[in-house]
Fold these 4 entries.
Entry 1:
Amino acid sequence: MQTLNFWQKLYIPEILKGMWTTTRHFWANVLGRRHTVTQQYPEQPTYVDERYRGRHRLMRKEDGAPRCTACMLCATSCPALCIHIEAAEHEDPTVEKYPGSFTIDELRCVFCGLCVEACPCDAIRMDTGIFALAAYDRGNFLYPRNLLLGDDEPINIAEGKTPAE
């Protein structure tokens, strides 16, 4: 074991080095020589990269119908088992089936993007850029098909909405 010399036993030089670093950073920030990285979140919009995986959405065909064919590949590839699809028969004989019920449990989702990669018809995407998912009730995190298609809007507390409004 190495023996400590006199200055190492005092710890004073190390304390002064640490205080010098703290003081230097303090005055650099006070005098404005350094760029501030803090964002005032609700007032100042946050930059979201185009590759960011945000809230899910379902895509529509040109005629307005959902692109999803209820093939169950997204639900099968999901490691969190948060996608629940119930297939239904379509009235049109050229269309085999469609999702009668399509629900995503955002509380279980790990936002891995495997559902997007597994979808053969590009029906599900995560490119909304919405990252502030907040609600008062756990049931508001079960996103049904009409919300994923954009017909309804979720209650988002982070945007200033409250259940009373």
Note: Helices lie at 6-10, 12-30, 73-77, 114-118, 145-148.
Entry 2:
Amino acid sequence: MPTNALFFSLLRCLLIFTFSRVVFAQFYLDNETSPTHQFKSRPDLHAPILDFAILRPDLVTPGYIFLAPYRNLDPGPYIYDNLGNLVWSGAGHSGPKTAHTPRVCRYKGTDHLCYFTGEQHLGFARGHGVILDQNYRTVKTIEAAGAGASNDMHEFKITPYSNGTTVLMTVYQPRQYDVTTNPRFNLHNGIGWIVEGVFQEVDIDTGRLIFEWRSLDHVDPSQAWTLPGSTDTSGDGLHEESPWDYFHLNSVDKNQDGDYLISARHVSAIYKVSGKDGHIMWELGGNKPTFKQTNFAFSYQHHARWISENQTHTVLSFFDNASSSFNATGRFSHGWIVAIDHVVKEATVIKEWGAPMPEGGLLSTSQGNVQMLPNGGCHIGWGEHAYFSEHTADGTTIQFAKLAERTSNVMIYRSNKYNWTAQPVTKPALWSFSKQEQKTGFWVSWNGATEVKSWNFYVSNQTSGPFELAGSVKKTGFETEFHMPTFAGWSFAEALDGDGRALDRSVVSKTFVPSEKLRSTCDDSGCKYAERVPPEAEVPYEAPNEVPAALFSTNRGFNTSHYYEDVPGAPYPWNHIGEWEEQSEDGGSDSTETEEGKRSSSIAVPLGLLIGFTAAIIGFFFFRAGGFRKLQSTAVEVTESAFGSKVLQRYTRVHTKESDYRSHSSSSSRSGIL
């Protein structure tokens, strides 16, 4: 290829790539979360939609699916039925924090709902355990014992064989540590910081510490497979804000003999720990394995659980991630059952389950779990990827679903399946609609209720009644829909169980009737969403009074600029309220960077690179005849393309907004009024 043509081809590729990155920035943001349900009776709920690739309703184990996606629109604990219908949205129930591993637990002889809630950090969390009753009321919160760090997300489990009196939990404890003793750590000239993996067994009612185990007392950091600064969650070990997580304790279980089974991801090992003195009784995998692995290798595993054990054999299950995204021992992740023969010191995989993906499997480089089901099958949560599956004992996949695309940011630490019975203390929610006061539609739901089988609808044309039964329908999914051929101005819905017994009723609801102007956009199920009027038809907003700067609170609170657009015609952009700093009389400004500034900066960076590269090309062709002419034609070609036009239009809008803001900011500082 001639030199000129080569350079022009490279230039064209760079220009188009730069434009495409800018134009599609918002597109990628839109693809980072889960598609969500929309419910007329509960528009506040944004539960992820389950997308099934495989579903065999006749074969799946009865029960409900418990999971807690995070980094989605409304993170929190959720319950779904086997067909993917929402049963309970606990978003917000755990507070403004992330939740992990909702599961049914036995506390004081009855079923409860347990989960962890807390502040998410990189690779771990800080928080506490929560126990809810069958009305979704909090009956207990459990914190770590002692004077160390708070609970971690990786394990919060009522202890087996404790009759529901104690709980197992993990703690990630940062400590100062001499990291100069081993050259593999690549740290010197000072004290380092390390994360000690700790697990505790704690009495639920008293908070008393029953047992505690600390990794640094038993496993030397030299055994780590993950060194300081080697992964995105390892920590660099240089300061307390980024301690080296050499162990990464991620599961704890207990057997009837009182010993513990723990999994440590960053040493790729599973340990049996003595419940008497904490010494390591055996090690599967890792750098000091007790057993020869006859037919498998594993690494960076999660969720080790006892299945059975006697004097000569141990059977356990765990999720083999097979990769940390930086190192790998396999192409795909699997759920495994491993049998250990203590006589011959060998470990053998006896059952294996993988994801039914077209490429042969799914590689999940973090998180995940395997839950053994009563029928011998298993339920698998695929961790880093927001997928879950159910498999029969012979390996057949009978359920495989996702909450979000693999390219999204959404993750699920663990997914489980249990039977569950609950009746919330909240009431059913009802919304009714009539387009022309002729026919009436009703939509009803009851978040968290598991025993509703049908609904009765009662109507009246007066708020105080009398109310007459308009009809009954079977419950369908989370939200049930009912239509009647006549108009009803007021109504309520009544929930019935399988025996026809009334469980509860909604409050009386007034039917929404659209205005004559709005009616043309409606059908019998509601009206379409409103649209913004064209810019030329907008009515300018004029504030009746300008507020003195001294009256504004200096507490900015949460930044809501991502959710609220500028109000057209306002004297200043509303999404900058609370971000303007008091300015000097000469027009100087000490304002923090605004969201528009950040967005324009995100565009300016690639455009700056583009301009710099273009300048270099111009210099090169300065010495070549006809170079400028060809460069000009290429620039015209790109800027007039669809990509180029969109980017230039967007840049112009952002630049205009920024100029208007600066102009107003300057005039405001001179007048002393915000």
Note: The mean pLDDT is 85.
Entry 3:
Amino acid sequence: MLFLIVLAALIIAFVLFLNFNPQFGGKITKAHKARYAQSKQWDGKKFVNETLTEMDMSFGSMIGLIKEQFTDSHLRKPKQPIPIMPFDSATWKSESEKPKFVWYGHSVVLLQLDGKSILIDPMLGPDTSPIAPFKTKRFSENTLELIDQLPQLDAILLTHDHYDHLDLASIKKLKSKVDTWFVALGVARHLEAWGISSDQITEFDWWDNLEFDGISITFTPSRHFSGRGLTDRAKSLWGGWVFKTPTHSIYWTGDSGESNAFKTVGEKLGPFDWAFVECGQYNERWHAIHMFPEEAVQAALDSKSNIMIPVHWAGFPLSLHTWKDPIERCMAEAKTKAQKTCTPQIGQIITMGEEATGEWWKTLE
């Protein structure tokens, strides 16, 4: 009898955790589903990719993965925290017709285009596993405090709702700095659950486009998935972004496996001055949703991008490769394929035409 009481208590606690933990974001309603049903990517139950996308998540594979997580784990993260260059407010505010950006590790980028400050996937929290028993700590320290240094923002953009891109603590701290949110279809319900007015949020389906203060913004396809809990897998969309002005064009691939989408985006909206391309957190088991570094270089080429900026690395140990492997493989392939690259230090302000090409990671262990 005692066992049954304890079991019932555990089940109730688990159900309460799933239903009331704010980390999971907003729940899907009938109204949401009616909205999603207007998308060609909604199959009646979930969002789907343009091509069949499968991952090896069998029981045997997961057991092997867990074992590997504890093998040579010291190589998956730097021995010391990766330093972040202080934000140079004067340089950021200085008038320039050229785009600027600051990369804060992983996929966090502050972009300036036509004088507008746009923040993309601002996961600045210390841990990508806030609901898990084990922490997945960031390679840099005190990153939430960076938000205090940021300028007032014109817009925040979100590619999808995974924890390494959408962070509750970061959103709470950013709310007072921005009035405009552009997000993947289905992500608005999370922001609304966290206190952001629906009037401030615009959701995008693939190829949706709008003009924002002289900047054309388009949400583009990628090959990935979404979800924050046990019951909302693929219940919101995922993708990338294209920013165009009369003089500049920038592509953000978003998280993706190898895909024809890059070539399609290049044909429809390219060529691009810059392409921010995912190059890390890959594994054979989930190759369909995270491309290898060599494929990332090909994505830049396929999309007709002049300069590739590798992202989705130097932030968290979300796979089994060493923390330097993504950038080292990416740079080697880029050299072979004659693809130009930009490799800024974390926190460094980059101005178009003055792209950084140093190999700063080689100074760290």
Note: The chain has a mean pLDDT of 93.
Entry 4:
Amino acid sequence: MDCGPTCLQMIAEYYGQYYSLQTLREKSYLTRNGSSLKGISSAAKSIGFKTESVWMNWEQLIQNTHLPCIIHWDNNHFIVVYSIKSENKILVADPAFGKLTYNKDDFLKHWITDKKNNVGIVFQLKPTSKFYENKPDTRKDFPFKRLFKYLKPHKKYLCFLMTALTIGCFLNLSLPFLTQAIVDIGITTQENSIILIICIAQLMLIAGQLGNELFQSWLMLHMTQRISITFISDFLNKLMKLPIAFFDTKLTGDIMQRISDNNKIQKFLTSTLISSVFSFVTFTVFSIVIGRYSLKIFLFFLIGSSIYVIWILSFLKKCRVLNFREFREASSNQSNLVQLVTSMQEIKLNNCERGKRWEWENIQFKLYQINIKSLVIAQLQGAGGAFINQIKNVIISYLAATSVVKGEMTLGMMIAIQYVLGQLNTPLNQFLNFIKESQEAKISLERINEIYDKPDEEPVGVSKITNIPSCSNIIFQNVTFCYGNPEAEKALKNINLIIEAGKVTAIVGTSGSGKTTLLKLLLGFYHPTSGIVCIGEKSLTDYSEKYWRRCCGVVMQEGFIFSDSIAKNIGIIDEELDYDRLHYAARLANIDSFINSLPLGYETKIGSEGCGLSNGQKQRILIARAIYKNPNYIFLDEATNSLDTTNETIIMENLQKFYSGRTVVIVAHRLSTVRNADKIIVLHHGEIVEVGTHETLISHQGVYYQLIENQLELNKNV
């Protein structure tokens, strides 16, 4: 999703200027579908690049392209081409996998979009003087402070844990000396009593180690759970403070992945980091012990360990690329399986079982290929590492044995060294694991910080009006709005409108005319690109969004039913339900008889984990939810489009009484829903084309008349 801004960031850095991904994302106007060339071009121009997007063939790419450039990859991705040294050496930077080298055939397979003309898309960028005059972003230090603040409340437990780790380190340190004592003192002097005493001491140390490890585990569990809850709770709290516009540009999977990133960071903070500190101390202490026994053995140990570390780390990049590919295919596999299960009715209706199964098998084949490559790399890494380790241990054993023969050390010292070598393998592996997990934690933390760096819907310290007028006109003054890029097609154009207080205003128009967009502006989900929306004499932006929505009863097209009881779904705003108001709302929404027919009545669980409801029943519960709030302002977006005629008639009659003294805005297609409105607004391609009552608009025989005529046989029913 962020491949476009990432490519632009890489090219900006190539020319010596740094811009954060957050800045470039905002300038690129990302949508749920990710980046677009138009958005990337807009961002590039804003920071001082001259841009050009062209179709090219291979020869033109080699001869005429200004490098580095951005190219469209696999029809759904963007990468940077840095250099083309030969037909077999094309250096690219992929936002997902890093720097890679392709040969001509592989490159063309991914790049060529138009197979017929054998051309692909190239996006060229050249810096202008403005690029160097602009002030770039300041690089942020790695945000450790945000992590460590979660450890501060647990200082006491951290002190206990570090004490336990230190005790454990000294207990481990004592064992090789006791082993040496058994051989050098007990066996040499042939004193059974000394051997017995040393063995008892060893047993006591082992028991102490066991108790210490249990204590450490308990502390870690206690601290981990608390930090985990706080960590994710803070993240969810931040998410809920973000404006709706953020969620409209993010896929659910992307947000869920960032929540999973919290778990990775929490694990790194509470497990990997602390264990690595202990491992570092253990490694240092045992290295000193080996150095005390023999400096020659210690130096060889360091050389062997360094070679082992270099060997393991040399595979990190390949593993990272394969992990990215596996993650992408695994996501496709999960989505495909969900689609297979949920769309079985359509699959059977269209007899496409074989094709859908082949789609799934194709994903499995790709996963199989990735897993085979991962297995080969893991085996090579593991076998090579084990071989290096064994050679190191054998040579150290040889050096120790020859030292015993020469009388430079005792047999007990040699056995102690062997014990220490065995103990050193664990901290060494933990160190390597720390490097891997720290990389993952850094990536996860960067992704999470993208959320924390976004401004809240109501920023802290900004004072907004919380006293919402109960009965005021809503006024649109020259309002123009477009989603994202200001250069994109406008969803609303020059809207001048007065929604009168205490009256019912209906908004009609064809699909895509801007009806729902206008409603979202009313609710403060978005702000106008130009113009102003006022409640009375004050701009809507002057009022607290939270308090404004508290005064609004809203039914949106995509209204959500929670996995909870019917009562809590209707009275969602209250912790303690007002059952009189609850039953009143259900009666007006004509859902009370259905609820009472259920065995558990209002306590029946509904939603994804409960009783299944028809679309009409869901809409009636959503209408009841809006009524329960007893709002001063009511906004309904196609609130009855799933209802049968009988239910709709009853509900509309009930609502007419409820509307009294309230400001109501209805977005609808059905004649029965809008004909009694005090004012009808007709939108067409984002513009107001007609305003009036049902009768006056019919008599004009304009756009509204055509809408009604398309819906009904006008001469018979109007």
Note: The chain has a mean pLDDT of 84.
